[in-house]
């Protein structure tokens, strides 16, 4: 693993650099919006990656509740943490894009609001993990993770019944895009996925080792207590 | 040949290499033991030695991290919960109810509807069954006795008593020890966690010492070794109720419906007496109405457009006040543990709490809606029955999730803050449906059918989810 990780990191770095070049230089300029539209290559892949990570949180939560496997709990935690980070990128790049195009940073358009709601759901999940007692945390978090995932379809189905200022989704939402732009967008998503996987791996390893150290310290404290008796 | 009365020959309880960890702290560190039927064991040890954790493990309140506990041949302690009586350090009683009311409620959780039985156990512990004073006004000694009466209600074979003599005067403690002796002589297996070992000399059969989460000593009492044990089963001053025919394990299963009804009845009675939830919700929602009125200062036309949002946000905020109180009474004296060790279904508790909250919030809505109509000059253009449907579905959406997340936030630090943090993001789709549907009914512009369908689907999905996961939340340790 010690040799694989740097290689993957270098490959991801190269891919991210190549995709940045594609997004900022190669992809054609939008007729209406000009170059500002290029933020789409970061705005959209970050949202897609976030939702994949929330799906990981859901699967981890379900597996933990069934088999009480601590590794599943770690996957759920890392999925939610990184999902929140990627969705934060999406929520930050959105207003940066909106300001020159719509003339406002934010509007309470339901598509924007719904994304913010999903972000809030997973932030509340992370707050719960911080505030609950050690032994009970994984169960409580798994349950809240599942409730959060159950809420997501309701949030997104309700979008259909609102007129929205936000463009329709490019994939599966009726939106259209120049094939070259779409190609660069998908390429950027791939780069985001690789980058996400790399960070995910590091964060998971860190959590795994942190718990091992905790366990070892607890055992050491126990041994010391016995020794003093 | 081994002695047939020894634990090894006929153990009623077998503990195999039990480890119980709370995060990084191991309260039990590989406990193994066998205990025989019809004996009294005094569990001794310093504070933090693991005595209470062991007792909670035997009561089925705390699952071992590793190892196994088997009682009456079953390692599923819920299966044999009717055979176990548990008295904790806190009273496990509702302070606001009298002793008789408390016992009547707990008896019903075990499927015992005979009031005579409650009066018998109260008399047996030396208290007056006709005492109408709430338990909160009892002396500590009386509370301990009533707590013992609760543990005896279901005529258990095994009694687990955590510090029954603490804060009790010497005379009462001696009387309690004698009562325990009589119960042991009737064939019950009794575990007494205590720091007052002297009280049990001559009563207990064995002394078990726990240190650092391990059993370090098991010795028969001196009186037993010298054959000087005093019989308590015969001519005693206070007669203990004769053994009642207690239903077998299968019959013990109390129905979901019946338990929901008795728990709801108990909650409504307590709320009727205190009116805590209703009063605080009313005051809070009135505050919200006043604050909104000068924050928005709407015209009559604007009122119609924003009233849906104002009404539901006011009700949601006010409901959180009541929802935060949902489990307050259950955790005050750890009464929730008394429920958990009973054979009553867990979902009955959840449904009763959710229905109780639904009634409280509905009362609030009934009282506050006329005020909204007056203050904001409202007049519904759409049909009123639709408004009623939205109110029922919306209220249920709030209370079902609110009751559930109140139970989740029970296990967290700063639980009053955690409830809205968990509830509000999840409730947003429902709130959206409630607000949009109400606005459409008030303005008569569109049909609220879609929003009503969304609310109904939301209610179904989340009610099912709450019922599936409530037990996991309640049993998490």
SSE order and pairing:
The complex is a heterodimer of chains A (229) and B (477).
Chain A: H1 4-26, H2 40-67, H3 70-102, H4 110-131, H5 137-157, H6 179-228
Chain B: E1 11-22, E2 25-36, E3 40-44, H1 51-59, E4 66-71, E5 84-87, H2 99-109, H3 115-124, H4 140-152, E6 158-162, H5 170-185, E7 189-193, E8 206-211, E9 214-220, H6 222-225, H7 256-274, H8 276-296, H9 300-325, H10 328-332, H11 335-340, H12 346-375, H13 384-409, H14 415-443, H15 449-475
Parallel strand pairs in B: 3-7, 3-8, 5-6, 6-7
Antiparallel strand pairs in B: 1-2, 1-4, 8-9
Description:
The complex is a heterodimer of chains A (229) and B (477). Chain A is mainly α and 229 residues long. Chain A has one domain. Chain A has six helices and no strands. In chain A, helix 2 crosses helix 5, helix 3 runs antiparallel to helix 4 and helix 3 runs parallel beside helix 5. The longest helix of chain A is centred in the C-terminal third of the chain and has 50 residues. Chain A starts with a helix and ends with a helix. The longest helix of chain B is centred in the last third of the chain and has 30 residues. About 4% of the residues of chain B have low confidence.
Form type of chain B: elongated
Percentage of residues assigned to helices of chain B: 40-55%
The total count of helices of chain A amounts to: 6
Strand runs of chain A, count = 0
Give the strand tally of chain B.
9
Find the biggest chain interface: A-B, 37 and 38 residues
Radius of gyration of chain A: 21 Å
Please give the order of strands in the largest beta sheet of chain B: 5-6-7-3-8-9
The secondary structure category of chain B is alpha/beta
Q: What are the secondary-structure elements of chain A, in order, as H or E?
A: HHHHHH
Number of folding domains of chain B?
2
How many structurally independent domains of chain A?
A: 1
- Strand residue percentage of chain A: under 5%
Mean pLDDT of chain A: 88
């Amino acid at each position: 693993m010690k040799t694989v990780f740097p290689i993957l990191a270098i490959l991801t770095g190269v891919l991210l650099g190549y995709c940045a070049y594609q997004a900022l230089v190669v992809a054609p300029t939008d007729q209406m919006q000009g170059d500002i539209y290029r933020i789409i290559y970061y705005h959209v892949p970050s949202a897609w990656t976030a939702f994949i990570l929330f799906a990981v949180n859901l699967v981890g939560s379900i597996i933990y509740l069934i088999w009480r496997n601590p590794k599943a709990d770690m996957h759920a935690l890392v999925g939610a943490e990184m999902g929140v980070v990627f969705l934060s990128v999406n929520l930050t790049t959105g207003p940066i894009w909106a300001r020159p195009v719509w003339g406002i940073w934010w509007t309470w358009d339901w598509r924007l609001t719904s994304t913010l709601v999903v972000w809030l759901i997973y932030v509340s999940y992370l707050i719960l993990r911080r505030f609950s007692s050690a032994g009970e945390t994984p169960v409580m978090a798994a349950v809240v993770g599942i409730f959060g995932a159950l809420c997501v379809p309701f949030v997104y189905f309700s979008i259909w019944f609102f007129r929205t200022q936000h463009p329709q989704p490019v994939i599966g939402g009726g939106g259209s895009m120049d094939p070259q732009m779409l190609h660069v967008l998908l390429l950027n998503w791939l780069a985001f996925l690789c980058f996400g996987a790399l960070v995910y791996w590091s964060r998971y390893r860190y959590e795994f080792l942190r718990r091992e150290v905790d366990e070892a310290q607890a055992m050491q404290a126990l041994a010391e207590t016995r020794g003093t008796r | 040949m081994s002695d047939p009365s020894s634990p090894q020959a006929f153990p009623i309880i077998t503990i195999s290499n039990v480890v119980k960890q709370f995060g990084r702290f191991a309260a039990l560190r590989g406990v193994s033991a066998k205990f025989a039927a019809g004996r009294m064991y005094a569990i001794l040890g310093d504070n933090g030695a693991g005595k209470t954790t062991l007792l909670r493990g035997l009561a089925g309140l705390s699952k071992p991290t590793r190892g196994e506990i088997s009682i009456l041949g079953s390692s599923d302690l819920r299966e044999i919960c009717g055979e176990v009586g548990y008295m904790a350090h806190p009273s496990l009683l509702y302070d606001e109810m009298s002793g008789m009311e408390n016992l009547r409620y707990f008896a019903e959780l075990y499927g015992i509807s005979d009031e005579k039985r409650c009066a018998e156990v109260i008399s047996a512990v030396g208290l007056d069954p006709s005492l109408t004073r709430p338990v909160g006004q009892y002396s500590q000694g009386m509370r301990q006795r009533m707590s013992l009466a609760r543990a005896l209600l279901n005529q258990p074979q095994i009694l687990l008593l955590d510090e029954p003599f603490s804060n009790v005067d010497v005379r009462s403690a001696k009387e309690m020890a004698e009562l325990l002796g009589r119960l042991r002589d009737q064939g019950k297996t009794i575990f007494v966690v205590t720091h007052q070992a002297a009280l049990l000399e001559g009563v207990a059969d064995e002394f078990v010492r726990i240190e650092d989460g391990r059993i370090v000593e098991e010795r028969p009492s001196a009186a037993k070794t010298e054959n000087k044990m005093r019989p308590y089963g015969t001519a005693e001053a206070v007669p203990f109720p004769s053994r009642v025919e207690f239903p077998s394990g299968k019959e013990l299963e109390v129905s979901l419906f019946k338990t929901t009804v008795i728990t709801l009845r108990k909650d409504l009675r307590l709320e009727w007496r205190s009116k805590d939830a209703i009063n605080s919700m009313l005051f809070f929602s009135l505050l919200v109405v006043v604050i909104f009125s000068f924050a928005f200062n709407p015209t009559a036309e604007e009122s119609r457009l924003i009233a849906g949002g104002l009404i539901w946000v006011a009700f949601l905020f006010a409901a959180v006040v009541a929802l935060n109180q949902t489990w307050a009474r259950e955790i005050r004296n750890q009464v929730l543990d008394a429920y958990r060790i009973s054979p009553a279904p867990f979902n009955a508790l959840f449904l009763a709490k959710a229905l109780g909250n639904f009634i409280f919030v509905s009362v609030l809505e009934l009282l506050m809606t006329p005020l909204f109509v007056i203050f904001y000059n409202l007049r519904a253009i759409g049909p009123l029955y639709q408004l009623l449907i939205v109110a029922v579905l919306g209220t249920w959406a709030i209370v079902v999730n609110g009751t559930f997340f109140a139970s989740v936030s029970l296990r967290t630090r700063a639980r009053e803050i955690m409830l809205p943090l968990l509830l509000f993001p999840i409730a947003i789709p429902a709130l959206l449906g409630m607000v949009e549907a109400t606005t459409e009914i008030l303005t008569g512009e569109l049909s609220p059918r879609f929003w009503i369908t969304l609310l109904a689907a939301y209610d179904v999905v989340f009610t099912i989810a709450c019922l599936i996961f409530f037990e996991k939340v309640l049993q998490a340790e």
